[in-house]
Recover the amino acids of this structure.
């Protein structure tokens, strides 16, 4: 179930990121296509996954 939870967390986070970008970007004068929003969301999701993994490894090492 931990794997399912991880996929759900990433999926929900990705959806929230894309939805937020589609609202916030135009408010700052940034206009991109839906495809761009999806790609940007994917990049930030990948960075977030790497960050989470590295932090988890660091905390496990110091535990």
């Amino acid at each position: 179930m931990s794997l399912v939870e991880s996929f759900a967390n990433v999926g929900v986070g990705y959806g929230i990121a894309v939805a937020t970008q589609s609202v916030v970007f135009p408010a700052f004068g940034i206009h991109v296509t839906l495809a761009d929003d999806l790609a940007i969301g994917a990049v930030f999701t990948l960075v977030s996954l790497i960050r989470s993994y590295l932090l988890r490894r660091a905390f496990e090492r110091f535990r």
